Amino acid sequence: MRCREGDLLLSQSDEHTATAPGPFFIVMNAGSGGKDADSREAAIREVLSPAGRPYRIWRVTEIRRLPEVARQAVELAQQQHGTVVAAGGDGTINTVVQTVLDAGCPFGVLPQGTFNYFSRTHGIPVDTAEATRVLLHGALRPVQVGLVNGRAFLVNASLGLYPKLLEKREEHKQIFGRSRLVAMFSAFVTLLTPPPQLVLTLEEGGAAEEMHVSTLMVDNNPLQLQEMGLPEEHAVRHGELAAIVVKAKGVWQLFSVVAKAALGRLGQADTVYSFPFTRLTVKPLRRRRIKVATDGEVTWMIPPLAFSAAPKTLLLVVPLRGAAEGELR
Fold this sequence. Notes:
Blueprint: H1 4-10, E1 17-18, E2 24-29, H2 35-51, E3 55-60, H3 66-80, E4 83-88, H4 90-103, E5 107-111, H5 117-121, H6 128-137, E6 139-143, E7 146-148, E8 151-153, E9 156-160, H7 161-176, H8 180-191, E10 198-204, E11 207-213, E12 215-219, H9 222-228, H10 233-237, E13 241-246, H11 250-262, E14 272-277, E15 279-284, E16 290-294, E17 297-301, E18 305-309, E19 314-318, H12 320-325
Parallel strand pairs: 2-3, 2-4, 4-5
Antiparallel strand pairs: 1-6, 6-19, 7-8, 7-18, 9-12, 9-16, 10-11, 10-15, 12-13, 13-14, 15-18, 16-17
Helix pairs in contact: 2-6, 3-4, 7-8
């Protein structure tokens, strides 16, 4: 079964339609379930209850349960023509999207992460109460989704050094808390002992090239590309994906790349090569499986890795102003 509202809008890829008056099914990553989660949940209820809109909140404290709860939310949205909502960071949003994309249900976001690239790109407020009001008064916009071996990603997918950075960052956040400062500290520590380079064969448009790389990132987020200073943001806005190949070797070259990315000058780095594409196949040398990070969630995948934009779009609830103006420029 597919969501009726989703079927209606998929044929209107260039139009924006007001959200339907159905119920909201909210999957909330409560982390440790502390006071901050209490206040965020209270903010959601304080907006939705007076509005008279039916809703249900799943407060998930165990990350491994997110896929199961997301499936429950999608099933109810299909039955009641409702909207599935992810409340959390980019990783939580990614987990819920894995189920929502095929179902075709309208999808809302209440950003509660560290960087919130996906929500910021589409003008969704970081404040929980304001983002909840967008659910009530927003519009639906078709949004591009990336795929790697069938797994969806909204911001980026990567292999090599970047998945290691993400794993270490999660370890440090468990100890020191979630903040951009902790993320920067974690990256600094991890770069001091970088893993060996990968040998990858990249096949695109009938041509193949073997490369020695520290990291390969495939980006689907114009805002992230813009902040790093890469021109491929324009290609991503028009239906392509962007490949970023980091060939830097050794600690100091890697630090140089990170510094340029932070300053918005990654395109000036001699050890970085980027290009837009429609379909890209990546074959690691002598590896039966490889770690791939999708929107910050690290999983094992079996090569070759096939990257492309998904044939289906995600029906995202965005602010009315954002729907009129398009993606963040």
